[in-house]
Amino acid sequence: MKTTLLLLSLFSLLAPSLRADDDTPVPPEMQKLVEAMVGALKGNDDTALSACWHSAEVLGKVKAAQATAEASTSPTEVDAAKEQEKEIKKQTRNLQVTVARAGLVRGLITKYFGELGQLTLTSVEVSEDEDASPDTPRFDGIEIRLRTADGTELKLEVDSAIRVEGVWKFQGRLEDDFTIELPDVE
After folding, report:
1. How many CA atoms within 13 Å lie on the side-chain side of 35?
2. pLDDT-derived band of residue 132, with 50, 70 and 90 as boundaries?
């Protein structure tokens, strides 16, 4: 009996911290970023969509700065310039994949759910990256929920978002999961 009571007590103490991760507040800047991304998706504007992501060069500089900081404590040699170049290549490819996936998403929505202009943003969910440095805060696993004109719920996900020099933008790519939740039928 005492063991059960102890386990219940421990669980009740841990439960609020487990729920807190699911309820990370979305900063207004992130909300605006997602709204801009959805607007670009609806408007079939790949340039505006790409503008929602940090450029590969900006992310390369961030990676180089991180490598330089790690070099001071690392027993092995770290080449910041090489890390920067690798990050630029990676993020350039990520943006190409994102634009291609956005095109596929647009096609699917138009084919099965009607006009893109009728999509509405219903919610945004983010998870704070606990390992991010205070200089460059970051969210992982951004979930963007949309509703079509017929009430179908859609979910898109983006790898992450990072604040660089005070500006929140996405990093990584538009995920390959495209979730559809059909409306209730009466």
Report:
1. 7
2. confident
